[in-house]
Specification:
This protein has four helices and no strands. It is mainly alpha-helical. It is globular, with a radius of gyration of 11 Å.
């Protein structure tokens, strides 16, 4: 696994924390396969990935 992926994943966690005030809960709860797809295939920025995590979190919370 690429070291850059783990750096990116940490940045996603930081963005999610900034948006929600939650620590790494959303990123830790996210399926690693989803995050890997967002990084390697979709090439989302950390902010885009964090926003998508928030959208998915809100959708499942309903």
């Amino acid at each position: 696994m690429s070291e850059n992926y783990f750096t990116w994943r940490s940045a996603v966690a930081e963005q999610a924390k900034h948006m929600t005030g939650l620590e790494n809960e959303m990123v830790d709860a996210a399926n690693d396969k989803v995050l890997q797809d967002q990084y390697f295939y979709e090439q989302l920025t950390p902010q885009q990935a964090a926003q998508r995590l928030m959208q998915n979190h809100k959708a499942t919370a309903r």
